[in-house]
Specification:
The protein has 153 residues and is mainly alpha-helical. Helices cover 88% and strands 0% of the residues. The protein is elongated and about 95 Å long. The chain starts with a helix and ends with a helix.
Length: 153
């Protein structure tokens, strides 16, 4: 306990006298900037991989829908691809937040704001469209169920 208190007192005395180096002059700042840059690159790559997976799945579903001649299948494909895009956009936003946290410039802050607005707008309209699709499917199931009941009587 005594050693800790002595260390704190010596540190404060050195800080007052200007002996303690600021973070920009230490080895830690470049190391942290480098680590965050690599993390940002990994997160951006993850977003790109998610988009690629979404596109591959959508192409597969389009071909499957074309073979079955199900006209409602295209709506499902589009909504499925939109979910992948929204998820990838979340990763891209996270990467941009990391970039802005290191050395924010007005350009980066503006880019981050634009991406946040796009993501929020996309999420809003996608959620609204999925809710409408859910109501349409429920209504169709109710009508189909009523028709089955009528045919049984």
């Amino acid at each position: 306990m005594m050693n800790s208190a002595l260390a704190i007192i010596l540190f404060l005395q050195e800080a007052v006298n200007g002996v303690v180096s600021p973070p920009s002059e230490t080895l830690f700042e470049p190391l942290i900037i480098n680590l965050v840059s690599w993390l940002r690159l990994f997160i951006e790559t993850t977003g790109a991989v998610i988009i690629s997976i979404g596109i591959i799945c959508a192409i597969y579903e389009v071909f499957k829908t074309l073979r079955s001649e199900d006209s409602d299948g295209f709506t499902q494909v589009r909504l499925s691809l939109a979910r992948y895009l929204v998820l990838a956009l979340e990763f891209q936003l996270a990467a941009d937040i990391l970039s802005t946290a290191i050395a924010p410039s007005w350009d980066q802050i503006g880019k981050l704001a634009a991406i946040a607005v796009i993501r929020t707008t996309l999420n809003y309209f996608l959620s609204r469209e999925m809710e409408q699709e859910k109501h349409i499917v429920e209504a169709e199931n109710t009508i189909a169920g009523d028709r089955e009941d009528e045919s049984e009587t």
